[in-house]
Amino acid sequence: MNCVHNKRKSGDIIVTVLIRILALVGIMVSMTPASATIVYSNDFETNTNGFTTTGVGTVPAGVSFTKWLGGDKSLHHGSSTSLSLTGLSVGTVYNVAFDLYLGGTWDGSGAFGPDYFQFSTSSAGFLVNATFVNDFPIGGGSGKTQTYSDSTPLGDGGEFIGRTGADVVLGEPIYYFGHGAGNPLLSFTATTTSEILHFAAFDYQQRVDEFFALDNVVVSNEDAPVPEPATLALLSLGVICLGFNRRKRR
Ligand SMILES: [Ca+2]
Ligand SMILES: [Ca+2]
Ligand SMILES: [Ca+2]
Hints:
This protein is an alpha+beta fold. It contains 2 helices and 14 strands. It is globular.
């Protein structure tokens, strides 16, 4: 008896799990964006088209033999670079991805600071407005803190240890905004057909001490998710099965 009961019980569990997976797959597939169109992309290997500054350089030295905008230390205290976008569709959401390299001894919120990196767009305002630390030893040993974390790019969530949210490449912090899982994707909704993206540093010290550089700047628009008929059918089946399963268990 027990054996039959157990078999039925495990059978029920398997059916329940399968139904839930089916429903989950239906929901996940239905939420996949229909398509994304890249409206701007630059790795700064051959040009700085669209930007107001042209200085490039390879950083971090010996780690990644790739050119970065500002890698020649041309972007530092009080300086900035802007990207002009044209031909945008009003009301469309655009995603901005870029890699941010922080060179030198950024000091965060305290002494010899505050050291800010700021990213804003003409319609959305600040999307990143936070202090950053690049100190030693890595892991907060210096006691310096920053207001940036992946969940608080506007620097409004308290203080965090140095390099929070960064990938540390041979001791140098690189922030992969919108590139790779877990990194915040920044976006704006176009209110006109043109937009200015503004990247700036406001730090206490000079270029010999602190600078920043950008790479892999990609702007894309994400069309509204449109569930395909087959997906809708799958989703409906999942919901129906869920309902049936719930009723059966009552
Ligand atoms: Ca590059
Ligand atoms: Ca410093
Ligand atoms: Ca500083």
